[in-house]
Write a structure and sequence with these properties.
With 444 residues, the chain is α/β, with parallel strands linked by helices. Helices cover 53% and strands 15% of the residues. Its cofactor is FAD.
């Protein structure tokens, strides 16, 4: 397989998204120009910003639809990043739309902006719905800020994001009622109906239909729960026709174990063994209530799984050889990748102390069977070598793996560790598209 072929999946997916967005920006701008200017320049600007906001809202839906083709090529980390930045653009467009509309009509009527907003809400169809949509999107935006996200459980954060769909419906009905480019042209109406239909259809397919179909087809159940250490447990799952489940080593699922008190809890866990068509295995550390209670799950428990998700797979391997770096329980997708990745492999396993190295025995056996090199680096998170360099900094990476720039590097671990590793790799001249460091962020 050539280098060009190996880089194509991610490049084509990213380029495809940009082309789709750019083409629709062009169409929306043309529809705006065709509708003509408004009575006040501020209102004209507000209309254009409102149209761009509607387009960005539809694009947001596409990014969170969890469509397999996009997810396998870009991964949730990149889709989440695009979702976040698009969200910032959406908020600014909506804020500008509201401000320019209010001040534009206030200037025409000779009243103050607050009084004009009240008048518009009372007299113009769809304005109240638009205000409600803006308030909901602002609420979701605040909940998605980093300071708030760290304090929210995944289920709470996910529930808050469901309000986005209500905001979409309210915004679209507002556009139908008063949008100049919508009500003034048959082509514009067809375009907007198609755009929103495709966006909502993608969400329905990726978030509802596909998970329901896969779970109905595969009938997943727990077969065994095996403690790996005092605070780490592996869960073995089997089902029907698992050889037809498109899961790859390095990917993860969002798991729900359908028992009393747990069915509502959704937890993202990576596969800790490459799928063999017969069973799946996840391995989790007790970091919260959800993962801590896994050891109490009984064999035979039904499982509802969403996925597989993630681009942390050999699909993106460019070089003949690889370096796998794991920190703590981040060893789970790395251990699965070791079964699947090609070429000569070096594995670096970073832990606070030797006893924290879960799955070490089978990792060592697997490395031995395929001729891979395994290094276990133990020490506290802030540990440095005799030269004062981080254990996974550029100097030590170059010492452990002398041809590191000629390997694909897959990194999974705590964010501080991952940041140190990526920085070190960049200092050593490893190409950006050879570094794969998915953090398994979830776009809701």
């Amino acid at each position: 397989m050539t280098t060009l072929q190996l880089t194509r999946p991610r490049v084509l997916a990213r380029a495809g998204l940009y082309v789709v967005l750019g083409a629709n920006v062009g169409i929306v701008t043309a529809l705006f120009a065709d509708a003509g200017p408004s009575a006040d320049p501020l209102i004209t600007i507000a209309r254009l910003m409102g149209l761009y906001a509607a387009l960005l809202m539809a694009f947001q839906l596409l990014l969170v639809a969890r469509l397999p083709w996009l997810d396998r090529r870009l991964g949730m980390d990149r889709l989440t990043s695009l979702h976040r930045w698009t969200g910032f653009g959406l908020l600014w467009m909506l804020l500008g739309h509201v401000v320019f509309v209010v001040f534009g009509y206030a200037g025409l009527s000779g009243t103050g902006p607050v009084a004009e907003l009240v008048t518009l809400a009372e007299t113009t169809e769809g304005i109240l719905r638009a205000i409600a949509a803006f308030a909901l999107i602002l609420f979701v935006g605040v909940a998605s800020a980093r300071f708030a996200r760290r304090r929210l459980a995944y289920e709470t954060w996910h529930f808050i994001h469901l309000y986005t769909y209500l905001a979409v419906v309210l915004a679209f009905t507002h556009e139908i009622a008063v949008g100049a480019s919508f009500v003034g042209s048959d082509f514009a109406r067809a375009y907007w109906w198609t755009l929103w239909g495709v966006a909502l259809g993608a969400v329905l397919l990726g978030r509802v239909i596909l998970p329901l179909w896969r779970n109905f087809r595969h009938q997943l159940r727990v077969t065994a729960v095996v403690p790996e250490s005092p605070n780490v447990v592996s869960v073995y799952i089997t089902g029907c026709k698992l050889d037809q489940l498109p899961a790859k080593a390095g990917q993860f699922f969002i798991w729900r174990f359908l028992t009393k008190g747990r069915w509502w809890a959704a937890n993202p866990f990576s596969l800790s063994a490459a799928p063999d068509g017969k069973s799946l295995r996840l391995t989790a550390k007790a970091l919260g209530d959800g993962s801590a209670s896994l050891r109490d799950i009984k064999p035979g428990t039904r499982v509802f799984a969403e996925g597989p998700y993630g681009a942390f797979t050999t699909m993106h391997q460019r070089k003949q050889n690889a370096l796998l770096i794991a920190g703590g329980v981040g060893i789970t997708p790395i251990r699965a990748l070791l079964e699947d990745i090609r070429g000569h492999v070096v594995v670096i396993y970073r832990v606070n102390k030797q006893d924290d190295a879960v799955l070490l025995h089978e990792l060592a056996e697997l490395a031995r069977s395929r001729g891979a090199l395994l290094h276990v680096l133990a020490g506290p998170a802030n540990a440095v070598d005799e030269n004062g360099s981080p254990l996974l900094g550029a100097q030590n990476l170059a010492g452990l793996v002398r041809d590191v720039w000629d390997r694909d590097v897959f990194v999974c671990g705590p964010p501080p560790m991952t940041d140190v590793v990526v920085k070190g790799l960049r200092e050593l001249g490893v190409a950006r598209d050879q570094i794969h460091a998915e953090r398994f962020s979830l776009a809701s």
